[in-house]
Amino acid sequence: MDGVAFAVNNEIHVSANYLGHYYSGDVRMEFTGVLYHEMARIWQWNGNGQAPEGLAAGIADFVRLKANYIPSHWGPPGQDSRWDHGYDVKARFLDYCNSLRNGFVAELNKKMRTGSSDKYFVDLLGKTVDQLWSDYKAKYNGN
Known about the structure:
Elements (H helix, E strand, L loop, with lengths): L4 E4 L2 E4 L1 H7 L4 H17 L9 H14 L20 H14 L3 H8 L7 H7 L3 H11 L4
Antiparallel strand pairs: 1-2
Helix pairs in contact: 2-3, 3-4, 5-6
């Protein structure tokens, strides 16, 4: 199996090769974090297939972040040049958005039940995703 894990048909498949040979940290913590991510993928909405994969993965990693199963290789908040780069970047950006409106990520997921639109950020937070990214970067001194 390529990759770390995937969820399909309400089943989670985890790579034993990844955990046994490639991962060098706390395997129990990593395995649990992977399960949080993949379980979120099973339960979350995906806009009837219209939602960008990066957003769906970001929501799943937000769940992992909030459960405090943060991989050691994740960078600090404020890194990267785009909000939709990297698992950690998306999770931390969504966490920032959630700090602006408690329950934002849950509301975003709810809106994604029937479709997907960048307008959801404006609907819920009053700013475009690009404006929110600029604010986020400014908060962390443009890291």
